[in-house]
Amino acid sequence: MALAINIRADNSSADDIERLWDQVSVFEIEPSMRKLGYRPHFTFAIYDSPEIDEKTAWSAMLEAVAGQAQIGIEFRRIRWFEGSPLVLWAEPTANDILTRLHSSISAAIDPAYCRPHYRPEAWTPHCTLGMHISDERRDDALAFARSFDRKIEVLFDVVDCVAFPPVRIISERKLLP
User: Fold this and answer.
1) Residue 167 sits in which domain range?
2) Mean pLDDT, rounded, of the chain
3) What is the CATH number for 15?
4) What is the value of pTM for the model shown?
5) Which domain of life is it from (predicted)?
6) What does the pLDDT read at residue 95?
7) Do 40 and 18 touch, CB atoms closer than 8 A?
8) Which of 26, 117, 135, 158 has a CA that sits 20 to 30 A from residue 87's CA?
9) Other Cβ atoms closer than 10 A to 109
10) How many domains does the chain fold into?
11) Confidence check: pLDDT of 177 > 90
């Protein structure tokens, strides 16, 4: 079982991202995001190592967000991670707060314990829209991503530590308004 530390949108501002989940799900082998039973989020780190326990991960998250207010994030583009399956995600506009939080967590816990894609040299802030794009629908999914021409604003208001799979919230804290 893995541990992840995240910031999530636990309010109605996340509805537009969840609607994108539903739109993207038509390109998937099976809908991935609704199946999680977990709100739109950014993951800062994922740990599979038994050396990093819940208390250590949660302490790093709490230290990173000490005094942090809720974070408004704007999305204007849909991007993708290459691979099979292809992954579609909403790209946040430049946000120094997300980078600062990630850096703080990486300073508190040696990134060598973290999955490679979440280490400082590799991490890309992203809000996943679909994790299992079928190879047969790849071109349609990319066309959808390229045609996205909207602005979505989401308020990320809760930080947490989760175990998965399945997603189980271990600890959580609302951020200051």
Assistant:
1) 2-174
2) 97
3) 3.90.1140.10
4) 0.96
5) Bacteria
6) 87
7) yes
8) 158
9) 20
10) 1
11) yes
